[in-house]
Design brief:
Largest sheet of chain B: 6 strands, mixed
Strand content of chain B: 25-35%
Strand order of the largest sheet of chain A: 1-2
CATH topology of the largest domain in chain B: Rossmann fold
Oligomer: heterodimer
Number of domains of chain A: 1
Number of helices of chain B: 11
Distance between the termini of chain B: 40 Å
Largest sheet of chain A: 2 strands, antiparallel
Shape of chain A: globular
Distance between the termini of chain A: 29 Å
Number of domains of chain B: 2
Strand order of the largest sheet of chain B: 6-7-8-3-9-10
């Protein structure tokens, strides 16, 4: 347990050491999300769209920050080899990294999200807190996925982020309600876990249900995705070292 | 599981490791006793690092078994990691951290309470002045020393050093060799993978020679030299050639490997220090005067080259 705590503390310290970079992240996140939210409010004709969109941006920011940190993780093979020699169970090490990484992700994402919520009128404590928590959970999930992927090569993360993330976001309910989505996007939205995760957050925040997918289904998909990715990541982490599967 | 002091530090049996189509280890079976400094030698690609990574539970073998201090590396990985420490060939460090922070973290994860040991090791390796400088601003040699310092503060039962003095200057090498010897003297079993024959001569109580993933030989340096190169060469320049009778006595009582070129007598012997006195006595009894005596021990470099070639 001491080893796990030491790793988490070290991880946080290392991530948050460069304070100017952190300030830049916050400023960039708050600025860009607010501008985009304002612009899209004029383009989508859904009542109180800016409130709806604020949650979408929260999710999107969580994913983006998660991806950035996971990318850094992918380049830390040297450090990872050291972690493999630590006298504790490998699963504990991975969970320590994920937890520490999630906390870092939250610290990166929280200030711009708070700024966005306040700006958009989502000032009630409960919805804001829910939004943040779900952003954290989501970013963790994405992080686990990318952490697993980057065991192959970190460059694949950059390629995936550039090529797939816009599509995943576009064909989900992250930025607009399903009822407002064009017909060609409907099948993709049905198959996209992000749509269920985004609408679950909104359901918990009290949005009108006619805008959302079924909450029960959304909860099932979200929990399933989280547990599934976690178990896959744990399994692969045990087996894949130095880019070589130990046979 | 109890780990009696009489057990071997490492016991590998029929160890195979495959990377795609290449067999890095090819049926390696070896027992490494506790309380020694064992240098692992072999050409590039022999399987040295793979063997060390399997011992350290970083890699899983394709087949075969390995026990470290009695613990199975596959079934009891966490216990194995508790009794060993490894210094990698390439330093594995947090680049934004200072040497002091790296060592404190290492001490914490290994449950080391004696933080004074960190200061001692930093001073011993000449890192005290740079202890608060970020690792990214250290030289290659200094980073390597930080990597080694991790194992030195840990004092594990099995310490592994992969190329410990690569990138290190001569003065630094001596610091590190002394530190490794001190570690062994304090009771650790030490494995050193190296390509530096001089380093092996300085450190090794035993040498483990690997080639193509197989064990070629395991012996102390002296035995290895005797086993392979035919021992020492004694070269004597005499006042006159010895008689046939004397040569026959030398062949019968000392060694059959005798070569006479004029007044120069060359003799191969297993141990020069036991055979030289009676040899001189024989020659003197014939009234010969020794004008020059040379003794040449085979160096490890020659031995390893020959063994490696023979194992192909």
């Amino acid at each position: 347990m001491k080893a796990v705590k030491a790793i988490m503390a070290t991880y946080l310290k290392n991530r948050l050491r460069i304070k100017t970079a952190l300030l830049a992240f916050w400023a960039e996140g708050a600025f860009s999300s607010t501008i985009i939210a304002l612009a899209l409010s004029f383009m989508v004709s859904v009542k109180d769209y800016h409130l709806y969109y604020a949650t979408g941006v929260a999710i999107f920011l969580g994913m983006s920050y998660g991806t950035i940190i996971a990318n850094e993780l992918g380049w830390e093979k040297e450090w990872e080899l050291y972690l493999l020699t630590i006298p504790t169970r490998r699963a504990s090490i991975l969970l320590a990294r994920i937890t520490a990484w999630s906390l870092v992700s939250l610290i990166y994402a929280m200030p711009p999200l708070i700024a966005l919520f306040v700006f958009s009128g989502l000032t009630q404590a409960m919805p804001a807190a829910l939004g943040l928590i779900m952003a954290l959970v989501l970013s963790s999930t994405i992080g686990i996925i990318f952490l697993t992927i980057t065991k192959i090569h970190p460059l694949s993360l950059t390629a995936l982020h550039a090529a797939i993330m816009p599509l995943v976001t576009r064909f989900s309910t992250a930025t607009y309600p399903r009822v407002a989505a064009p017909a060609y996007a409907q099948p993709a939205i049905t198959l996209n876990p992000l749509a269920y995760i985004a609408d679950l957050v909104r359901y918990l925040q009290g949005f009108p249900t006619y805008l959302l997918v079924d909450p029960g289904l959304a909860l099932t998909v979200t929990v399933g995705v989280l547990l599934g990715m976690l178990s896959i990541a744990l399994h692969l982490y045990e087996r894949r070292v130095e880019g070589v599967i130990a046979k | 599981m109890a780990s009696p002091s009489s057990m071997n530090a490492v016991e590998a049996k029929d160890l195979y490791k495959r990377y795609d189509k290449v067999w890095a280890l090819n049926g390696l079976t070896v027992s490494i006793p506790t309380g020694q400094v064992v240098c692992i030698l072999g050409p590039n690609g022999a399987g040295k690092s793979t063997f060390l990574h399997i011992i350290s539970t970083i890699l899983k073998p394709s087949s075969g078994s390995v026990k470290v201090m009695g613990y199975d590396v596959i079934k009891q990985g966490a216990q194995v990691r508790k009794v060993l420490g490894i210094s990698f060939q390439e330093p594995k460090l947090f680049w934004r951290f200072s040497p002091e922070e790296v060592l404190k973290l290492h001490a914490k994860v290994h449950g080391i309470r004696d933080m004074d040991a960190i200061e001692g090791v930093l001073r011993q390796l000449g890192l005290w002045e740079v202890r608060r400088r970020s690792v990214e601003f250290l030289s290659g040699g200094e980073r390597k020393k930080v990597e080694i310092a991790k194992v030195l503060i840990q004092k594990p039962r099995l310490a592994i050093f992969d190329e410990p003095t690569a990138m290190i200057d001569l003065e630094g090498k001596h610091y590190i060799w002394d530190a490794i010897k001190d570690l062994a003297a304090s009771g650790s079993t030490v494995l050193v993978a190296t390509n530096d024959m001089y380093e092996a001569e300085v450190l090794a109580g035993s040498i483990l020679l690997i080639n193509k993933g197989r064990l070629v030989a395991m012996a102390n340096p002296r035995e290895l030299k005797e086993m392979v190169a035919g021992g020492d060469l004694i070269e004597l320049l005499l006042s006159a050639p010895p008689s046939m009778n004397t040569l026959e006595r030398i062949r019968r009582f000392i060694t059959s490997e005798v070569d006479l070129q004029g007044s120069r007598l060359m003799i191969r012997t297993r141990r020069y220090w036991t055979d030289l006195p009676p040899l001189i006595e024989m020659l003197r009894s014939e009234g010969l005067v020794l004008l020059e005596v040379k003794v040449k021990e085979p160096n490890l470099d020659e031995v390893i080259t020959r063994v490696t070639l023979e194992s192909r």
